[in-house]
């Protein structure tokens, strides 16, 4: 029988939920506040947790934050119970790692449906004690650039299909997991106080996302948003922390990734300061092509794009005008005008929202 922990400070609400679940039937453990809920979770190791948000002393966000850092409870499905319907409240919870929301008041069918769905999607815990480290072995191999391990990483961790524009995390929230892109495309965005956005990175299949905040143990300084429907697996922060603490080679690999990212950002700052917008548009086109639409022979150095026109035409790329603007760091009108100029010069072809590179060699060597 599955065990469900109900953390709710309103006695009547807590009792009603427990009675409905017991009739299903589930074994139910009750807690009257957040602190008691954490104690009960560690004692009983429930299969699912239902938790109110607004509670004294320790609210639901605090409960989830603490449990997601506990290696034994990090993957337990977690559903928030809330009377609030504001998008901001939903987003905070999802960034912390919540699996679902139930907005009060809800009926018994809605409650049981949400519970059954989350229990079905819950990760399977190995029954063989010796197999308990399989997921860590897979993670270690994937981090150390084992392509086969990266392809099978989502077999060991909860995997979710997200829709376009879903945000894996937002700036200011605290990290609870490392994300791995199995399928799809995304972007990493920074915004200033006026709300102006700038794309600082592109993410695609095989990329780890959000590791910077986990390494610095601070809040996210950027936002990761999907550009299309994507398949993403979620790796608890506790698993990454265990590898970082016990295997120096893993820590070194992430340090190298972080150093490379810092170097790329510094290089981008220099380009933004001294290069023309026209040159930046050309480099943005080449960057998107390399990242999302690599050619069959794209194992060449990024500094040397083939000049053979017989092999120079690229696959059509699709990106919104706003995203091109955020990637270049210029107004949408300016970027559109320059794209029109490049088309007139025979460097690119534009068909609706799709852009095809016709001469990558000339785009690479664009001087003005």
UniProtKB/TrEMBL annotation:
Signal peptide annotation: none
InterPro entries: CheY-like_superfamily (IPR011006), cNMP-bd_dom (IPR000595), cNMP-bd_dom_sf (IPR018490), HTH_CRP (IPR012318), RmlC-like_jellyroll (IPR014710), Sig_transdc_resp-reg_receiver (IPR001789), WalR-like (IPR039420), WH-like_DNA-bd_sf (IPR036388)
Residue stretches making up the HTH crp-type domain: 275-361
Response regulatory domain sequence ranges: 3-119
Modified residues (4-aspartylphosphate): 52
One Gene Ontology cellular component annotation held by this UniProt entry: cytosol
Gene Ontology MF term list: phosphorelay response regulator activity; transcription cis-regulatory region binding
PANTHER family (UniProt xref): REGULATOR OF RPOS (PTHR48111), TWO-COMPONENT RESPONSE REGULATOR ORR33 (PTHR48111:SF1)
UniProt protein name: Response regulator
């Amino acid at each position: 029988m599955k065990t469900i922990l109900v953390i709710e400070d309103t006695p009547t609400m807590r009792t009603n939920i427990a009675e409905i679940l017991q009739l299903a039937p589930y074994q139910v453990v009750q807690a009257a506040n957040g602190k008691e809920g954490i104690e009960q979770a560690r004692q009983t190791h429930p299969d699912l947790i239902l938790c109110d948000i607004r509670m004294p002393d320790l609210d639901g966000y605090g409960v989830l934050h603490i449990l997601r850092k506990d290696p034994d409870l990090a993957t337990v499905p977690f559903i928030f119970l809330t009377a609030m319907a504001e998008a901001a409240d939903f987003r905070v919870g999802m960034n912390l790692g919540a699996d679902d929301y139930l907005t009060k008041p809800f009926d018994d069918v809605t409650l049981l449906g949400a519970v059954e769905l989350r229990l079905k999607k819950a990760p399977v815990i190995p029954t063989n004690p010796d197999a308990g480290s399989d997921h860590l072995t897979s993670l270690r191999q994937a981090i150390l650039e084992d392509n086969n391990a990266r392809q099978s990483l989502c077999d060991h961790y909860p995997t979710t299909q997200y829709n376009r524009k879903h945000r894996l995390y937002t700036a200011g929230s605290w990290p609870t997991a490392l994300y791995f892109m199995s399928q799809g495309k995304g972007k990493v965005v920074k915004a200033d106080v006026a709300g102006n956005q700038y794309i600082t990175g592109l993410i695609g299949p095989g990329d780890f996302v959000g590791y910077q905040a986990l390494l610095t143990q601070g809040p996210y300084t950027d936002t990761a948003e999907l550009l299309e429907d994507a398949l993403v697996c979620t790796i608890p922060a506790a698993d990454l922390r265990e590898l970082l603490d016990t295997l120096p080679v893993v820590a070194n690999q992430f340090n190298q990734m972080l150093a490379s990212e810092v170097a790329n950002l510094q290089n981008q700052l220099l380009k933004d300061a001294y290069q023309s917008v026209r040159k930046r548009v050309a480099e943005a086109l080449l960057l998107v092509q390399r990242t999302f639409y690599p050619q069959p022979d794209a194992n060449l150095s990024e500094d040397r794009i083939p000049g053979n026109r017989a092999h120079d035409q690229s696959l059509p790329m699709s990106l919104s005008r706003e995203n091109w603007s955020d990637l270049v760091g210029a107004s949408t009108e300016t970027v559109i005008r320059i794209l029109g100029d490049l088309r007139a010069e025979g460097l690119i072809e534009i068909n609706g929202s799709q852009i095809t590179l016709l001469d990558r060699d000339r785009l690479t060597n664009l001087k003005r």
